[in-house]
Each structure stands twice: as C-alpha cells, then as structure tokens.
Design brief:
Layout lengths: L1 E6 L7 H10 L2 E10 L5 E9 L4 H12 L5 E3 L8 E12 L2 E14 L2 E7 L1 H13 L6 H14 L7 E4 L2
Parallel strand pairs: 5-8
Antiparallel strand pairs: 1-3, 1-4, 2-3, 5-6, 6-7
C-alpha cells in the first residue's frame, strides 16, 4: 500500500528522525520529496510504502509527527523480477595489500537470461572498511563499478571476480 501526504511547515532537520520512526513502525520504505505548490510555497511530499497490516500504526505516526489532517492511500501491484543472489569471491591487489572477500551479486533474470546485476551494498561497504584499514582509499562507487563490470564479463560462468586496483 502506498501512502501520500504533504507537509509545508516542518523544519528539514526533523525529517531523518521521522524517516527512522516510520521505518520502525513497519514501513518498507519512505521517500520525502521537495515540491513547490500554489503561490510558490515550498512543501514536502511524503510517500510511504507499507503493508496493509501496518497502515494504522504508520498513519498514526505520520499524523502525530507531521500534524497532517489526512493521508491518501493507493493500492498497487508490485511487479517483481525474478533474481538470484550468488556469492562471488573477490580478490583485490593494491600496492602491497592483498584482500580476498566474498561479495553477494544479485542477478535479475527475464526468461532465464540475466538482464542486470548489482553487487550487494553491505558487502561493498565491508570491503571499503577493510581496504581503508589497510591504507587503501577507493570510492565505493568505483569499487562497485569494477566488481559489477567483472561480474558481467563472467556472467555465464561461475568464476572468481578478480580486480587489480593501482
């Protein structure tokens, strides 16, 4: 179920608190978008994805935190693509540092053909921490790109992923 409300009188500093509380109450996800409304007024559009079983709790929280007078609800159908997560061994050689770690890679399929893939964020983050602790600085976005590019090369084979960072 998708919930929508708008707010125009709340300081932006409080939004992260409300996001956390909304997720704690059972929301699957929450997005807060900046918008301009009539007469050039600034506002935020709040979109919350939640299961119907959490509807009352989430709506009560939004009313409490935002002071909103109402919330629009939308029933929707979510189109999910079949995917599988494979664990891949990644070996990184940078200067004198050698690091070997596992990273999960999600493969999205259509008609048994892999149409996209993504390395798991949490695994990438762990790799960055391990590299940083060894004095190697690499942006997470670059590491992600390198791993995913190598995974695409090996998409039909069950190979190790090997990356050299220089």
């Amino acid at each position: 179920m998708l919930l929508m409300t708008t707010i125009d009188d709340l300081p932006p500093e409080s939004l992260s608190h409300i996001i956390d509380r909304t997720l704690e109450k059972g929301a699957n996800n929450i997005h807060i978008l900046n918008a301009i409304t009539k007469k050039g007024r600034m506002e935020h559009i709040v979109l919350v994805d939640t299961d119907e079983s959490y509807l009352d709790d989430v709506c009560s929280l939004l009313a409490l935190e935002f002071g909103t007078l109402g919330i629009k609800t939308f029933k929707y159908e979510h189109v999910k693509f079949p995917f599988e997560t494979r664990s891949k061994k990644v070996m990184i050689q940078a200067d004198d540092v050698h690091l070997e770690m596992e990273v999960g890679v999600k493969f999205v399929k259509k008609d048994d053909e892999i149409i996209s893939l993504k390395a798991e964020y949490e695994d990438l983050e762990s790799m960055i921490v391990a590299l940083n602790s060894r004095g190697i600085d690499i942006p997470l976005s670059k590491l992600k790109t390198l791993i995913e590019a190598e995974a695409y090369k090996n998409v039909l084979e069950d190979k190790r992923i090997s990356i050299n960072v220089r």
